[in-house]
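ENTRY TYPE: paired fold submission
RECORD: A
CONTENT: sequence, then structure tokens
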Amino acid sequence: MARISSLTISTLIALGAAAFVSAPALAADPIVFTSWGGTTQSSQQKDWAQPFSQSSGINVLMDGPTDYGKLKAMVDSGNVNWDVVDVEGDFAFAAQKAGLVEPIDYNVVKKDELDPRFSNTHAVGSFYYSFVLGFNKSAFKGAQPQNWADLFDTKKFPGKRTLYKWSAPGVLEIALLADGVQPDKLYPLDLDRAFKKLDTIKSDVVWWSGGAQSQQLLASGEAPIGMFWNGRLHALEQTGVSVGISWNQNLTAADMLVVPKGAKHKAEAMKFLAAATSPQAQAKFAQDTGYAPINLKSAAMMPPAVAKTMPDQYKASQINLDMKYWADNRDAIAKRWYAWQSK
């Protein structure tokens, strides 16, 4: 993933340039797919949009980055220019509650093939990922970090730490897990305890706001340990960097695909969702990005060596981030999160 997101769902993000995906013939008006840009959207274009255009004759215009404020403004004005949008899990729940998205047509999309954790009445999974503990092996010659508690142990594992700047979802859970909270006792989050734990490493934190930045911090050794999207560590490892990964208590979340309320090409959008979440499309995207497929049939279509790098292979201690909780509480927590960062 490559994104810079905000904790408040009303934040406006600058609109990126659109790119055109060609198709052999124009069978219908083009649809617009909006996502976060970077390597993730490039793979969505290659693995989802292009094959869909070739098979359906429906062109797909790529737009981005995703902007929640703009999506809401479109729906409120009745002038919706996006047809399918890749959003974060908590926003998908909030958008459903606010009446901003259409229900999914499961007569078109094959719900029985999808991971039930990442599909609901108004959204289907785009892909899912894990926050994992990553470290530069060359920085730790002796004992290797094993868990989130090690991330907070600056004596045993000295050096700067890197955390995701925009995402209190994940960071607060990590702090609580490091402080001994059991996974089934995480929610509702004990914010006082989480921030108190974060205080212990605050002076050692280097924040990353995008996936490429997180890779650079780790590879250079500027921050030799931290929390990362698993796909970014997988990609970094392929470049020859000595990357260590601990999947212990990996925290999972999914991006979701939604159709804005009043989308001009609703029927075509549902067909695109069906294609994007199909076994083959999900398998190809997973191989390109390192992020796990949400179609339950995709794993069998991937090389075993690739399948072993996916979060769904590390379920023993896996923890699902509660995006319904975050949908209800994210804006309120954001105020405290940003105030704490600025102190």
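RECORD: B
CONTENT: sequence, then structure tokens
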Amino acid sequence: MIAGILWTLAYIWDRLLGDPRWLPHPVIAIGRCISGMERFLRKAAPKNLKAAGFMLPLVIVGGAYGITWLLLWALSLIHPWLAWGAEALLIATTIAVKGLQEAGMNVYRKLAEGDMDGARYETSMIVGRDTAELDEPELVRATVETVAENIVDAVISPLFYALLGGAPLAMAYRAVNTLDSMVGYKNEKYEQLGFASAKLDDLANWIPARITACLIAAAAWLFRIGDAKRAIQTARSDAKKHPSPNSGWPEASVAGALHIRLGGFNVYKGVRSFREYMGEPLEILAAKHIPASCRILRGTSLLFAALGLAALLLRGGWLL
């Protein structure tokens, strides 16, 4: 019963308040630890970075889980209410429904105002590709792809792991995801050192990504946001086209639901690359598709929150 209440409070906290700037965020501390570990490993094993890279998830992910567990245990010795409050707050810091929606809507507002430079700047804050030359359809595509992909990374996955193991496991997942975002690149600098981190992130998101695709279709139908049938069809046919084993599922599902096509040519630091198309261009990409993708984000998260709460209440606690 308590676990269900705390899990729900964490979700409500994020939906209403997001991540207040005055509150120290654990991901910042995780990021600093990753940077420190990276420097250490490059000096300690410069000729064997792939093997050394296995230390990153071992230390960072294990440390995130252990420190969170110890903190909650220590607070419980003082008073159970302290541990419960910290548990809800820590879970809330691992999810980002409000922050992701605000990031998408910042781009939409600039486009609605006709401020293309402002829209390009806001888009550059949430994507890695070059945005200086992007027109409105490409800015919309970049934003919708980011919102769709992060429904998994920033919402469903952390909620999924919080459902299984409370704040310690949710924080461990956040460490996995932060590792991937910092060192999980397939380039000359990180291909060896970040190999283990990237593979662990793929593994951690495998189940949540596929759950998310189903929930996107359900949300499209239940909240009348888009085409649920096409969302399922597009996910099944096009998800595998994405270079990531997981990101294609939410992106393809959103593309199908909104009758748009995602993927295409992107430019990263001046280098042009092509990503396979997902979905059919039944509608031309336009600014309206950004708030539509944000509605899918909210609907999907709400459905998972409802299902998760029901599961916790039925089991009477964390599932593990």
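NOTES ON RECORD B: The CA atoms of residues 132 and 180 lie 26 Å apart. The chain is about 70% helix and 5% strand.
STATUS: closed
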